[in-house]
Amino acid sequence: GNSVTQMEGPVTLSEEAFLTINCTYTATGYPSLFWYVQYPGEGLQLLLKATKADDKGSNKGFEATYRKETTSFHLEKGSVQVSDSAVYFCALTLPGSQGGSEKLVFGKGTKLTVNP
Amino acid sequence: DSGVTQTPKHLITATGQRVTLRCSPRSGDLSVYWYQQSLDQGLQFLIQYYNGEERAKGNILERFSAQQFPDLHSELNLSSLELGDSALYFCASSPLLGGRSYEQYFGPGTRLTVT
User: Fold this and answer.
1) How far is B84 from chain A (nearest CA, A)?
2) Gap between the Cα atoms of A66 and B115, Å rounded
3) B64 touches chain A (CB under 8 A)
4) Chain centroid to CA A97: how far?
């Protein structure tokens, strides 16, 4: 079946440190890949996405590259801020039979805390 | 703001009761998805509707049901509630089926507490 594995947290960093959160996937077919972020007490927000191999998604200083050969979509940021403290979810979806998307399959989430 | 609205924001109820969660998708989105987020199970897909019809089912209990109305809003009905049903329930919507966008936009969620 389709699944997503991401590194277990929690991850604690100092401000301006480099962030990597690992994500690998298993999928039958050619998935689209996403990172969602959940700030404390809030819902899920789409952070970035990539829909085909070698695509790089980027947003707010975060980046992730769709690597088909390693089935990975690792999230990186060069210099984290206190405001980046949140839970990050890696997810995949497969194209529906008539276009659009099927359900999202999520990893378990990685809690990031950034200290000043 | 994703454009997806959910009501109520919080719900506290007793075991054995029935509740209804409501979701309004983004303008123009015909697909609605329901997800459950719990500490032990993580984020799990429950059910998807497209333009009023059920499209896909996930790990949804028989005590749970959903529907999508002609105005495209959706309701998730949870009955015979158990303590283990306490969770955050999210609704998401996505653009027209047949489009090339695979993004889903999430509402703020309804936090259900069963006592």
Assistant:
1) 18
2) 43
3) no
4) 25
What would the pLDDT profile of A19-52 be if each residue is shown by its tens digit? 999 999 999 888 889 999 999 888 899 999 998 8
Cross-sheet strand order for the sheet of B64-68:
B5-7, B19-24, B74-78, B64-68
3-state secondary structure of B85: helix
Chain A residues inside the 8 Å CB shell of B97:
96, 98-100
Q: What is the pLDDT along chain B (115 residues), one digit of tens a residue?
A: 889 999 999 999 999 999 999 999 999 888 899 999 998 888 999 999 988 999 889 989 999 999 999 999 999 999 999 999 999 999 999 876 555 556 889 999 999 999 9
CA A19 to chain B, closest CA, distance in angstroms equals: 23
CA distance A51 to B48: 21
